[in-house]
Structures
1.
Amino acid sequence: YFHDGVRYIDYVIAYEQGDEGKSEDGKVEELRRKYEENLKEKGLQIEHEPKEKTCFVKVHVPWEILLRNAERMKMKMPLKEEKVEEQKKGSSGMCSCFGSIYRKMVSPCLLNRLNDDSRLVPPDYYTSEFVRDKMDFFDIKDEKTFFTNSQRSRIAYRLMSETRFGTKRIDIGINNLIGEGGYLAAFPLHEVNSESKIPANANLRRLLYWEWARWGRWYKFQPLDLIREYLGDKIALYFAFMGYYTKWLWSATIVGLAVMIYGIVTVCLYNHSQEVCDETYPTYAGNLTMCPLCDEDCSYWKLKTSCLASRITYVFDNEATIFFAVFMSMWATMFLEFWKRRQFQLSYEWDLVDYDEERDLIRPEYEAQVTRERLNPITGDMEPYLSTKDKYTRTCFSLVTVFFWILVIIAAVFAIIVYRLAISAIFAVSIDLSSLGAIGTFATPAMLTTITASLLSLIVYEKVALWLTELELPRTQTEFEDRFTFKMFCFQFVNFYSYLFYIAFFKSTITGSPGNYNYLFGEWRWEECDAGGCMYELSIQLIIIMFGKQLWNNIVELVLPWAQTKYRQWKSQKVSAEMKDNEYTRWEQDYDLNQFKEMDLFYEYLEMVIQFGFVTLFVAAFPLAPVLALINNIIEIRLDANKFICELRRPLAHKCSDIGAWYYLLEFIGNLAVVTNAFTIAITSEAIPKLVYYYVYSLEIYPESTYVGYVNNSMSYFNTSDFDLRSVPNNRDPFGEGNVTVCRYSLYPGYLSPPNANPPYAFTTQYWHNIAGKLAFIIVVEHVVFLLKRLLDYLIPDRPRKLRDKIRREHFLVQNMMFKAE
């Protein structure tokens, strides 16, 4: 409160006291003086809190100003009449039985504990847009409690954003004044968060900390209604999405673990990896001599040296992989469809259906920079107007710039590939590239990809995307966020996924074959996939990138902000201790917390969308991706909760009814996942060639139709005398058995005729059968999955019928109540 103990502090503004005699400080002080005078003219009350260095201005919005602006902002406020819920019909059957067991045993529900306290869960009222002429019909019991703290701060911020501090067009709003150096920060105050256990009269912040933000509550449900009341709809919707996404990850985790367990159990039984490990030829192929994996320094090697890699590959790439890829494509569709229903349900419960008070609010930056005006046909007011030509010019320039930076990202990925080629050639002298010891040659590029992507995103891409978005001059904050989201997603998508696309779809196709290798810049031979196959390498890359990215994000979000906050608090407390009569006030404590930036929530969503891509796009290569995502999200929810309650200044409680453009990006990734998984199984995996061999060719050798002999069948012969001079290995007798005359290779396209055939090294019939099988698989899987996705989209309505009827009923009752008020 103010010093009188009556007026509530709705907003706090901080500034630093400058040195006297400096002309620049005098100019800044004049801007502050004009701004504060204009705030008083709007009816706001302010109180100064002078300090030794950092001073504070406390802002209070009087009752009459609250009423006037609540009507102007069309805030939905509670009416006197409570909702009368229809008595729920008793449900029966197995579904209700299992649901009851789940609620009572599996989910120790936090909400049930909170519902026992009537202070925390007030009666549910009908709401309507506030009108001062009909105040008697609104539930106004007390002037101090009618408006919540978040509503008061939102009104204060709206008035502060519309207040001028100079004569220029851009001299308007608290944010611009902070940018001019007039103030350091502006924020609403947190409620007191004592360190003791919950007292009888615990406030929202303390209750949220004790029952939600602590690590010991990781298994509890999230109190979304309380989060919304304290932090606002926008942040509450983010936590609702996180919780719902994490809940759905459980099913993907269970199926993914089942696929992994199946691979681990069956790897010990007969399969093609057993042929690689056993040397008994011709039934087994472990003793086959393989062609060198690089020029000169690499020598011939035995296939059995890749035994461990082939077994690991089988764990990820087996018969269950096809099922899991199709399952995850359908899982993504089901998740998004049911999230739309859940989102609509929350919008109804929070009075946000078809309502967003800030959606059509013009950005101050747009008003300041657009000088041309025209009549708004809806409101009848003169508003700034950006011509169509100017708008298209700015948009085209922005798109060209985005495309240029995407090329820069691709160039960075290409540099990592070149590094890999160079490092492989260097290590070839001391490391057997066919053994597991070569893991460093393909693990380091994944680490470099993660580090490069994180640093470029932090240093370059955010600034470029922000500059381009501001250049486009979006009219509203919603348009600004959507455009910025699109640019950052393009950058991050290429950043994190481009190297994975290279391994999955291009690496095996550009290598060439013995006697006809391809070279980069005529110097470095394009590398082959690891001895375990491209699927093995893709799995390792996914593990490293997912784990590394999540570890980096948690360090950035937890360790650095915590250290910064503790340092500022220690510094302020030291100053307060030196000045014996100087109290460490509430506004000083909040000022020492880290600032909540508008883009903080954006990066939380971006992290989840990128993770959703890892879980769905290449899940055929790594079934444990949902497991890593689930563990990360359980930690992430409590990490973010603790951050918002304890480490950050209280954010402004923004209103919004959905997650915006993020849903469409998730839908794009879900559709792309169908294509990438189909191509991963057809191109990167050996699933299709194995099936073709099983049903077409093994019958000729083994009447019982098995996979026996697949490895030997899939490898082509090459006469070592046909090597180019640069490809001839220095050590032609690595096994002490005489010079090697014939070596084997199993590379795309593979299945070539032997050297003594006419013509030699030509595509065999089996090669074309494999191509036909792969094309048929891609076409059938894509069409079937997309058809099922469209069917699910049709069968699962975005808005449940019962809820739609309930909304219409409430609208009817509210209209009747307002008609009686007339």
2.
Amino acid sequence: MTSGQDRVQVAIVGSGPAGLSAAAHAAHLGMSHVLIEKTDHLSDTIFKYQKGKHVMATPSNLVLRSDLDFDAGSREEILGIWDRQIAEGKVNVRYNAEVTAITGDKGAYVIEVKGGAPIHAENVVLAIGTQGNPNLLRIPGAEMPHIQYQLDDPGEYFDEHITVIGSGDAGIENALGLAADPAQRNTVTILNRRNSFARAKGANVKLLEEAEADGRISVRRETSPQEVRPGELVLDTRDGEEVIRCDRIIARTGSKPPRDFVEAIGVQFASEERDAFPQLTPTFETTKNGVHVIGALAGYPLIKHCMNQGYDVIEFLNGNTDLKPADQPILEEKFAKLPDRYPVEHWLDVIGSNVAIFRELSPLQLRELLLDSTVEAFAPGEAVFIRNEPGSSMFAIAQGSVAVEVNPNDPSVTVPIEEGSIFGEVGLISGRRRGATIRAAEPLVVVELSRNAALKLIATVPSAGRVVNQISIERQLLQMFGSGLTREDVAALVQQAEVVDVRAGQKVIEEGAEDRDIYVIRRGSMIVEKDIGGKPVFLSYLPAGSYFGEMAVIDGSKRTATVKAAIKSEVVRFPGEAFNALLDAKPRLREKALEEMAGRREVTAFVEARKDSFGSAADMYSETAQFLVDNGIGEATDVLLIDETLCVGCDNCEKACADSHEGLSRLDREAGRTYAHLHVPTSCRHCEHPHCMADCPPNAIKRGPDGEVFIDDTCIGCGNCQRNCPYGVIRMDAVPPEKPGLLSWLLFGKGPGPGEASYSWRKEHSGEGQAKLAIKCDMCLGIDGGPACVRACPTGAAIRVAPEKFLSVTREGGLD
């Protein structure tokens, strides 16, 4: 233990995996050192893991460099090994030493310790992590005593309704621990504000899905906490507000770097973003010479990465400047197929400096990202992908540019995307097939990020999320308004755009208000209503991709109607002043906007003209529209409706569906809900942002060229899609054997006849233990004539339409 008066070559602050590995290697090399730990034990982060937690040693293809051993195992096993090896290695540890300040310069740093003698060091290695600074809940009731930000022993809790907030590894592991022992009789719920678990390891996500399938954990997707009450938690769900019983909240909402402390040393961060990390060189040195940062504070949370950094930073300080990172061979292999055989460092510099979404990543973070990505080179004219191909990855242009073929009938009509930008973000966000063919316009180098890698980047690196947002908003504006607009035309509008989350039922615009913003629906959908005689009367439905609010912006009038979210949605808000400036500069765009405005005013005038005569018809129309929205129409792109006044109950629709799909019907005509004469049977809505697609391990769920959501033959039968679908339209079933032909049935009585075979027949003729697969409507993708259910209906009762179409039909039928 240091006396505090001697000067050491290196002082290591923090004894997590990175700090322990650094100290162990310093001791091995005979460097004078001290490991400073504020608690009375080593590796406080691992120490605070819940008891019995299984610690993973990922990534498996990365070599471990450390004088300490580390392999997958329990928390207790790993801590025991490290305690023993630190003692055997004669590592100089100073316990119960809380660092309050670090002053001085390289070669003469003074580390002030609370209640103890200062430590003098030539170099400082900060391995302090971020766990000591958890992100606190910022909602009403967040100060209540039953909220905790740490879970030490899941076995301490019995007969409680416990909600875990946070969908990263810590949250998932806490939820699994609390639900592990049925004898504890806990009711465990975990909240995820998104559909996918982008921040968590695949193995943890799989364990959570298994627990969900077994009924041990309730997984609430697209759900966030809204208010904490005694014994209750108010949730903001995709369909609106919901209240659940809650005795205890475990909030695992991440943590932030101890920025004030680090900046006081003289270390600069990559940006002003709250979650930004310090600027680092490839040798882990900060902008303050002699101060190095490793571990979670460097943006590397995985234990194996952290331990490698601890080893490497001591090697650098010991003069080994030629040492390459442990992932060097993996990256060399990735870059080997690129032109000119440049070294890894060259490509890291090119990719990191050229690509906008990577510019605020440290070299360490960029290396980690590239381990999970693919790097490809294309010759001029070579296709990166083809229109209507499946694909949910995103591409970043490191060198060169691409040409987007926007007209499928004329490949010569193209739009350029320049170096440093991205493409493929539509497939990433919506899962749709590729909307255009994209070719290399010149020698091209791109980084292809898998869907999971891209979502993780957006979720964890604020600057990357901001750039992707900006690019997607810009492209959405250009696609919507057209009229020869360029990026430069909409640049001011994009710069002032704000993405806003809207709860189900929340008003975005209120009738009679005098605000002047315009909105674009990015996700979800909106309902437009007008107050007639003290009652809200439905005017229209606006799906994702629509814009609204322009009427008051253009003519300066008050809002003529209320616009509210049909489901949990996301809108982009633009200042009306900037939009008017664009209209002034582009007269053709103003003409287009005025034409659309006139159509909307006609609907409003029609409703107002009949306000004294249609009374109950208007009520019926509004209630019908609300019923359709409540049954999933708010996020549908195509839905099956049955007009009960025309339906004769022949079941031809079900039989045709089964005969078109290997004997298994995707439709249950009698199931579902009915309002007045409209019936919504159990059949896929082909949602704009499909819930079923969110957690499909093999990415077997795709979008067809016309928006149909289908499941391909890579399905593994995990059942995630069935659990995630809020409308119960996916079934798990074994594909039955082929039935005898129709003539064999008619003439000889062979087989079960048309339609879906009975369960007993399928069981009798299927092989033992045949695996079940996910089955759902695919809108008869690839079958001439379109959906068989509609073609087989003899009375025209069955129709498949987009929501805006049938709501228009409802309006005409309800008001005339």
